[in-house]
Each structure stands twice: as C-alpha cells, then as structure tokens.
Amino acid sequence: GAVVSQHPSRVICKSGTSVKIECRSLDFQATTMFWYRQFPKQSLMLMATSNEGSKATYEQGVEKDKFLINHASLTLSTLTVTSAHPEDSSFYICSVGARRGSTDTQYFGPGTRLTVL
Amino acid sequence: AQSVTQLGSHVSVSEGALVLLRCNYSSSVPPYLFWYVQYPNQGLQLLLKYTSAATLVKGINGFEAEFKKSETSFHLTKPSAHMSDAAEYFCAVSDRAGNMLTFGGGTRLMVKP
Known about the structure:
The complex is a heterodimer.
Chain A: E1 4-7, E2 10-13, E3 19-25, E4 32-38, E5 44-51, E6 57-58, E7 67-73, E8 76-81, E9 90-100, E10 103-108, E11 112-116
Parallel strand pairs in A: 2-11
Antiparallel strand pairs in A: 1-3, 3-8, 4-5, 4-9, 5-6, 7-8, 9-10, 9-11
Chain B: E1 2-5, E2 10-14, E3 19-21, E4 24-27, E5 32-38, E6 44-50, E7 56-58, E8 64-68, E9 73-78, E10 87-94, E11 102-103, E12 107-112
C-alpha cells in the first residue's frame, strides 16, 4: 500500500508557540492530502483538504488562520498550528488518496501527537 | 450528506470467539465504505473497503464485511478473535472513493484470554 509519513511523531511545546507538522507521500505524487484531528477516545474529524498549488479547503468550524496548511509540492503538505494553546493538544493525522486499479483509497500517516503545556 | 453510526463504543469478546462490529451508514448517493483499524498511538490502517463490486468484502487479518443496502449496514466480522485484534475500529463512508471520508465514532475491541 501507499506509504505516508509524518514528522514529528510527537511534539510537546509551550503555549503560544507555533508547531509545524509534515506529511509526506513516499510512494507517489499526491495532488490532494487530508488533515484530520482526533481527540482522545474519539473519532477522526476532517479539518481540511490540502490541494497542491492552491489554497486548502477548510471544514466548518476550523480556523484557517490558526491551522495553516501549505501543499507546496506533490509529496509534501504541512500543517502549522499557530500560537498553540492547551486545547489544541490532539492527535493530528494526514492521509493521501491513492488509486489502485479503478478505485481510490485513503492511506493514513502514523499521526503526530501534539501536547501543548 | 453522509453519516456513519457504529453501535457499541466498546465490544469485548473472548479469544477464539466471533467478532461482530456494527456499522450503519446514511448516504444520499451510492456509498463507498471502509473499515480502518487503529492500534494505540498509531495511525489508521485500512482493513477492507467496499466500492460497488462484490457485497461481501474480505480484508486483511481474517476480517470481512458485508454490504447490505436494504439495511444500510456494513458490519465487520471475524470468525475467531485473536489477542492481537484488540484495537480501535472505525467505519467510514465517502461518496466517491478517495474523496472526503466521514468516520463513525469508533468501536474499541477488547479480547479476553
């Protein structure tokens, strides 16, 4: 299957700092990547769709100025949590759509656990 | 609009017993359906997917799921549970494979020795 990596896997930061999370597609070029957020013991919630070379599409209720997404190349999308606060502590997961035969499937990265003190 | 409901946030079975994780969906268009597994502190791994071919879908690790349009269900089963199956399982739906996924709330499977 498609290989998707995320870096870092875990980050702890002080309140007010900004944190950048990278999502890389290692097997193929991805024009679209997705960013999800998962709170403890909860399901995944789509935050935004990252489009290569254009602005990301944010889901309702997600602050685009708070969660900056840059998809500068076909293999890399970054999510920057700006001025992080404790309530931003969460598990952030990216995914990449891959076509296998006639269908597409999303493949997920291992996730990044962000803890804001 | 699409939605997914997973009945039972926690399911406990004995090792060797049948595993049944329930998933019901709502979709205004023919759906594509997925089951993902998540181990602690890890990302999601695709178990299996239904994309309008055979209604009985076989996945990895001995899991399978059956798409029942009349019941709007896509329940996940495994004949015999193994300790290594203990994890969180998510059912998801999309209106076009590779597009945005809508997830259910997840079901934590616990396997007792």
